[in-house]
Every structure is written in structure tokens, then in C-alpha cells.
User: What shape does this take?
Amino acid sequence: MDPSQKFYRFFQDHVAELQDLIDQLQSVASVAGERQEAIDHVLASISKLQHEVADAADFTPAYDRKQYSDAIKGLQEKLNETIAKVTPKSRFQFRRSSIQRHVDMGAPENDPRLHPGSLSRNALNHRDDEQLQQDTTESRDQVSELPRNNGRDYNAELAKPSTHFIRQPSFSAASSIGISKQADLHIILPSSAARATASGSLTELNRCIVDMSVPTAEGRPFPGLALRDVSHSLIIAGRVDGPVHITGVTDSILVVTARQVRIHECKNVDIYLHCTSHPIIEDCTGMRFAPLPQCYALEEDAERENQWDQVDDFKWLKAGQSPNWTTLSAAEVVDETIWTKVVPGQPGSSVGETLKKVGIPRH
Assistant: This one.
């Protein structure tokens, strides 16, 4: 099937699904924040669909993009009207700014192919490969200060001394997962964190093990994830529907399922990956890639192409293989039993002992 036809079918399916979700909002209970959570999910899904339209601009005709733009605008208006019906005005006032500004992708002045650095593309949060450096800077700004969640400072709680080798912060009172400025901790997020995956950030971690696989598999995947300034650590990032931005990671192992992976300024990092697009590296050395371990894969992953070894190095313009990355051989990958028996934690095992068993630091 032609790519434009495939996208047309994909778009129509998602619009129909979102229309159904909006129609169901009136029947969702308003207690315990369930209705607001459903609204947030629809908002995030509309935003994601906008990104998909922008990503498809290179192979979809202008007429189709105009149709897509009108359909998204219709979803936004329908959501506004539904929220006005189900929410008492005295307690809630919906602000249009919570949905990204609508951009007509069918209009020539907004065509990202004709204006690669245009404001229309920025409004859709869509960046070309040429804008990766700007993208890295923006990612740094977004995750530099992690907010407290509903009055609870989870990072302060994690930093308190404890006799337990493994920490399991619930994040049950949180809307997002942000772990920052930690060292020598083994953190496993339980299923109670499944409702806190509206966004994710891991920053300034040293000699840590962080496992986010359970909440992102049982709940919703992250729409996006940022990892910055992580060293000598094992990060099982879980599932991400959108992009993963990895910056300043050294001497570590990462495990992730994502739509896009962009890696900047990293050194000596092994990445076990399921990615539906080409991973991108820039200003990196000693990068090694391997497919996702079986214990972290879901049935749906088998239906999607995994381009884990189709890495693009934006700083290697010469012909031939970039020296900055390679693939792990069968003898070099971490054994499946290590993932299933050692990484979840063993009685009496320290963080350092567990890291050593997975190969951190690299020999």
C-alpha cells in the first residue's frame, strides 16, 4: 500500500477512536479525578495525532493535510464543547491554551517541507534532523527543574536513609514521574505508578538502577521521556509512545521501547532497544546496540518493525560505518536470566553488586 494511503487509514482510525473517547466523557465518574484523567488522555492523544500529521508531511499531498488539519480542529472543538457540558462553570474553566495551537498543515505557509524552520513546525513540537541541537537544548530546559507531585516530594523521600536495598516509590499521588539527583539507589516502580506516566524525566543519577517497565506496560506508556546526566547506571525505561531524548549519559546500560530515540553527547552506553524508526546519535562515542530482551517485550512488539540496528550518526558524514557505534555480539549481550533473576533484586545484594553482574562498569 502507498505510504499516503496507509497514513490516511491510520489517521481515520485514530480520529474515530478519539471521537468515541470524547463521547464517553459524560459517563466517566468525576470522583477521584477519573474524568480529568480521561480528559488529559484525550488532550495528549490529539497532540500526538498533530505530531503524526507533521511527521507525514513529506509523503502526504497538501489536500490530505488540509483534511487532517480540519479533522483535528473538529476534535478540539468537540472536546471543548463536551468539557463545557460535563464540568460545572463555578469549579472549572477550560482554557484553550491547554491544547496546542491549531495549525493548518494544508496551507503553503505552514508546510514544514517548504519552511523547515518555521513557527508552524515549532507550534506542533515537530523538529527536523537539522534542529537536533536546538532540540537538545530545549530538552535540558524542560527537565532541569522537576516539579513536586500533589505536595509530595518523591525525590526527597528517596534520598532519606533506609535499611531497604530496593526502593519502591508508589507515585500514586503523582501525575508524572520525575527522578532526579539520586545516587546508589535501586528503584523499582510498582504498578501503583501506572497513572503517573503523563511525562517522564530521569536526571542527574549516579550508580543507580531504575526500573520503570511495570507501570508503562500495565498503564499508559510515556508520551515522551528525557534522560540527562546519568552515569554508571542501569535504566529500564519501559515503554514510550513518542520520542526519547538521551543526553549526557555515560558508562551505563539503557533498556527502552520507543517510537524515536535521539542520543546526544553520550559515551560508553549499551542500549537494548525496540524502536520503530532509525535511532539517531550525535557527538557520541562507544555506543553499542542490541535488541530488546525478551522479558521486556509485549506481544504487540512482534507486529512492529524493530530498527534497533539502523543507527544514523549525524556527526559521521563519510561513507561507511561510523566508528562511534556498533552492535553487541551474542557473547556480549546480558543473559536473559540476569534480566529476570538478578536485575529485579536479590536478597542482600547491593546496588554495586547488581551493576557489576550486568557489566557496569564496562570491561
Remarks:
- The chain has two domains: 3-86, 162-358.
- Residues 3-86 form a domain with the Methane Monooxygenase Hydroxylase; Chain G, domain 1 fold (CATH 1.20.58.1250).
